[in-house]
Recover the amino acids of this structure.
């Protein structure tokens, strides 16, 4: 891979503000990467929930893929300046540089450059930052199948083989409106809600350092009450919960069971929306071992990691497919100083290339 060619391609992709609220820019980013792959391949296009995605492979008919390379091209919102890439030494600053447009380009170039005797696929999606259900999830629902998946989220050539599950929940409180000068005549729903939230945080305290356990983030609290001199009659809190596979209160339970568990803890009705399981890949599986060996051959540790956040790997795990996160290095994910480490780009390309070449013919 030529680094100058890569940087030119990266500059064009990073300048596309492909956020969830800009469907035209999502499509533009997708076309940019498809153009990198070039002709002579089959491209299947998908769309769900207004989010386009594509599946690229060689041959006329879609196979079960021995390896599927997965990349998302959407990014979280940023300032206009963040969509103007700038390089400082080995750092390339831009929204999406680390998460994960540079890795996406490498995956596309590996697919383009490395012939394989087994079915290899490239899966490009545009909705990972908003849940992934209309991209990776939708394609798998449509019958896309694989034996192993490599997801190019940033990892500095380490392998994420385990990530937490997630729950989106809402706690609702009702009360009785009254004049705030006479609070004994009412029932303050907001106070009831805050007590319920405190009970949840007592059960799942906010950690002060990194810990592999269940966490609860209170993302938003609302009430329809707009008057300072009125006792609120309703209030709601939205929760983002992340849990490891070891937490039996969440793992293996459906949305209704989780809702009952949370309601018992806080004493108020709880509605659960998303309830996604944790992800885990066999750390001793042949693909994991081969990919670790390829990373080590490039001078990197190939260490196994756990990821507190959820990723599209969970959709593969739900279908019994081992998936790992393996990408370039960098820092500042979703922040004002997001950047990729350009020193990891060529080793990342070579590690993926050598990993694919090491696999036996299928």
């Amino acid at each position: 891979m030529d680094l100058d060619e890569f940087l030119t391609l990266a500059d064009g992709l990073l300048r596309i503000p492909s956020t969830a609220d800009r469907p035209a820019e999502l499509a533009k980013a997708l076309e940019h990467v498809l153009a990198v792959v070039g002709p002579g391949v089959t491209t299947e296009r998908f769309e769900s929930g207004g989010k386009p995605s594509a599946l690229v492979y060689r041959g006329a008919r879609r196979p079960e893929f021995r390896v599927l390379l997965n990349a998302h091209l959407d990014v979280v919102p940023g300032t206009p300046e963040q969509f103007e890439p700038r390089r400082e030494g080995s750092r390339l600053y831009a929204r999406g540089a680390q998460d994960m447009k540079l890795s996406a380009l490498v995956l596309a170039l590996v697919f383009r450059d490395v012939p394989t005797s087994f079915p290899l696929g490239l899966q490009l999606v545009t909705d990972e930052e908003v849940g992934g259900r209309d991209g990776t999830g939708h394609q798998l629902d449509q019958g896309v199948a694989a034996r192993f998946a490599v997801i190019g989220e940033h990892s500095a050539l380490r392998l994420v083989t385990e990530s937490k599950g997630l729950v989106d929940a809402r706690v609702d409180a009702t009360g009785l409106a009254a004049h705030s000068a006479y609070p004994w005549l009412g029932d303050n729903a907001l106070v009831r809600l805050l007590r319920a939230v405190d009970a949840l945080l007592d059960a799942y305290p906010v950690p002060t350092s990194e810990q592999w356990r269940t966490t609860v983030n209170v993302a938003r609290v609302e009430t329809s009450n707009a008057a300072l001199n009125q006792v609120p009659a309703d209030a709601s809190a939205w929760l983002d919960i992340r849990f490891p596979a070891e937490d039996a209160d969440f793992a293996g339970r459906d949305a209704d069971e989780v809702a009952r568990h949370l309601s018992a803890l806080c004493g108020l009705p709880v509605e659960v929306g998303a309830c996604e399981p944790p992800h885990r890949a066999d750390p001793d599986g042949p693909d994991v071992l081969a990919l670790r060996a390829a990373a080590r051959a490039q001078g990197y540790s190939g260490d196994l990691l756990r990821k507190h956040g959820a990723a599209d790997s969970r959709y593969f795990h739900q279908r019994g497919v081992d998936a790992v996160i393996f990408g370039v290095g960098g820092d500042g994910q979703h922040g004002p100083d997001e950047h990729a480490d350009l020193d990891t780009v060529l080793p990342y390309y070579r590690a993926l290339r050598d990993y694919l070449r090491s696999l036996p013919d299928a």
Observations:
- The two ends are 26 Å apart (CA to CA).
- The mean pLDDT is 96.
- The longest helix spans residues 97-113.
